[in-house]
């Protein structure tokens, strides 16, 4: 029976904790039998009362508010971007109006299912139809990231106790991988984070069918996540092999089927579906996993183990991924589910994938904390004399690591004065954006684009990408065709980007702005604080005005 500290002894099948059934005198007390290898889930602590059952949901509500505050303030301060918030808003906006997700920001007539395969985004369409705003996506992402704490905290409370569950919930909620995702626009991976968290809880409780049911939709979130589904299947085939259910599919068979479905699903999406939707054909991000500096595919495979650790930023990221668990997650086989994501990131030729910024580590945080719970649960329910002390010391270390790392990542922005201050530059941008009518076409700087995507058709100024091809910056830029141009010459610094121009160097962007006026007939409507608003009368409308004159 449990104690208030969550360190209660577990009642075993022989009798009360620590005492065998029958006579308990010193002369007759039997020696404890060795603990057998577990064949089912670990014996839980006493069932939580109603307030304890609400603990995970309380944390989810608090974290949702925290993430939403960061995300909304960033948007109001012009720190969100067309790449990626604007892109995803255009896709969800199309779904909300029952259209294919054609995204002008990604290219003329570009179907976003040809960039990454994420049809599950359509589940957000009804919400966006009710509230057509980029804030709708930002709040949805905040809720999804926060929802993942529910299965993790619930599992921790069940096997470690409520105090431990608070530490796990805080550690997950303040982890740098989640913070980085919550503070950088919107991304489809937000849908995957709670799905994987619920699947991991089911794996920890040896509910194999439930784990597969939660993990299967990962195939509809992003093409690489089929490999994560395959990892879930491999875990079930390995750890569930000893289970012999009375009926239904044997765990090993279920695991192998899931593994095959995950690998096959990713292959079909990358080799068939993505090229079919991509106007240029092929996989838009295939170059990231090319041969790189090596002369052949064989050499690439041979040097892969070394390439996964160099340059040094890769090794640092690998350590930081598991640091929120004080590295204890590495003691759990559940940590192997992180391998597919870590593998493609470390072997990618795109340097953005190697570090700790952006959203790429969000999917790893549920794995890390599931591994932490799993490893501590085995100590908590062992008969080792230092088991309970080890669990307490480990949780204190996790808490300390979380607090130490917190100031280095985006949640610390809430403590910065600049987060709560509206600068003259922001006021100038809002004033100029307000002069653009609804429903028109606009070419906007990257930071200004998501301020307009809810009410205008927006592309990036200067034109990017050309022909829908990413990572090609040295091509001749076509003439602008939008009715309006709004250009911010000196966008302020906004994590994770430094201040400065994108996607082209500032001199080239300035030259394009001059060309718009001198060669293509755009006229200056207003200039304020480095922001320029241009307008061009459409040719047909110009002829009508001339006829009236």
UniProtKB/TrEMBL annotation:
Region annotation Disordered: where it falls in the sequence: 1-42
Source taxon at top rank: Bacteria
Transmembrane feature ranges: 54-72, 135-156, 176-200, 318-339, 351-373, 393-412
Keywords recorded for this protein, A-Z: Membrane, Transmembrane, Transmembrane helix
Extent of Low complexity compositional bias: 26-42
Pfam families cross-referenced by the UniProt entry: DUF2079 (PF09852)
UniProt keyword Hydrolase present: no
InterPro entries: STSV1_Orf64
Keyword Coiled coil part of the UniProt annotation: no
This protein's name: DUF2079 domain-containing protein
Organism expressing this protein natively: Streptomyces liangshanensis
Lineage: Bacteria, Bacillati, Actinomycetota, Actinomycetes, Kitasatosporales
């Amino acid at each position: 029976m449990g104690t208030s500290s969550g360190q209660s002894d577990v009642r075993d099948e022989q009798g009360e904790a620590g005492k065998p059934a029958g006579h308990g005198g010193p002369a007759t007390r039997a020696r404890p039998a060795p603990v057998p290898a577990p064949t089912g889930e670990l014996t839980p602590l006493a069932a939580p009362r109603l307030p304890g059952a609400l603990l995970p949901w309380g944390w989810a509500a608090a974290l949702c508010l925290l993430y939403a505050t960061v995300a909304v303030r960033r948007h109001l301060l012009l720190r969100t971007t067309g790449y990626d918030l604007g892109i995803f808003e255009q896709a969800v906006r199309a779904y909300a109006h029952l259209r294919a997700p054609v995204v002008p920001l990604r290219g003329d007539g570009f179907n976003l299912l040809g960039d990454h395969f994420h049809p599950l985004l359509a589940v957000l369409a009804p919400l966006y139809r009710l509230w057509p705003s980029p804030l709708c996506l930002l709040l949805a992402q905040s809720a999804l990231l926060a929802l993942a704490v529910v299965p993790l905290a619930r599992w921790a409370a069940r096997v470690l106790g409520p105090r431990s569950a608070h530490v796990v919930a805080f550690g997950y909620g303040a982890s740098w991988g989640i913070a980085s995702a919550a503070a950088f626009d919107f991304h489809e991976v937000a849908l995957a984070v709670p799905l994987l968290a619920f699947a991991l809880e089911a794996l920890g409780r040896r509910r194999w069918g439930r784990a597969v049911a939660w993990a299967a939709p990962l195939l509809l979130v992003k093409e690489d996540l089929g490999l994560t589904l395959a990892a879930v299947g491999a875990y079930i085939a390995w750890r569930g092999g000893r289970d012999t259910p009375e009926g239904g599919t044997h765990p090993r068979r279920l695991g192998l089927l899931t593994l095959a479905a995950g690998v096959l699903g990713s292959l079909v999406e990358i080799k068939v579906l993505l090229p079919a939707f991509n106007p240029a054909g092929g996989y838009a991000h295939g170059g990231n996993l090319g041969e790189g500096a090596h002369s052949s595919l064989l050499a690439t495979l041979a040097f892969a183990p070394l390439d996964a650790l160099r340059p040094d930023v890769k090794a640092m990221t690998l350590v930081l991924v598991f640091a929120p668990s004080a590295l204890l997650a590495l003691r759990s086989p559940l940590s192997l589910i992180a391998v597919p994501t870590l593998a493609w990131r470390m072997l990618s030729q795109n340097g953005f994938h190697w570090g700790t910024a952006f959203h790429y580590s969000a999917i790893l945080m549920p794995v890390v904390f599931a591994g932490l719970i799993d490893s501590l649960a085995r100590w908590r329910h062992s008969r080792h004399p230092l088991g309970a002390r080890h669990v307490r010391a480990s949780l204190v270390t996790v808490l300390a690591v979380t607090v130490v790392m917190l100031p280095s990542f985006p949640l610390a922005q809430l403590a910065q004065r600049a987060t709560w201050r509206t600068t003259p530059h922001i006021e100038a941008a809002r004033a100029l954006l307000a002069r653009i009518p609804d429903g028109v076409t606009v070419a906007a700087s990257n930071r200004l684009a998501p301020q307009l995507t809810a009410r205008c058709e927006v592309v990036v100024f200067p034109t990017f990408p050309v022909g829908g091809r990413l990572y090609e910056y040295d091509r001749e830029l076509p003439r602008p065709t939008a009715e309006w141009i709004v250009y911010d010459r000196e966008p302020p610094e906004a994590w994770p980007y430094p201040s400065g121009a994108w996607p082209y160097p500032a001199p080239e962007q300035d030259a394009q702005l001059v060309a718009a006026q001198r060669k293509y007939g755009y006229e200056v409507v207003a200039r304020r604080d480095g922001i320029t608003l241009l307008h061009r009368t459409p040719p047909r409308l110009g002829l009508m005005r001339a006829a009236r004159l």
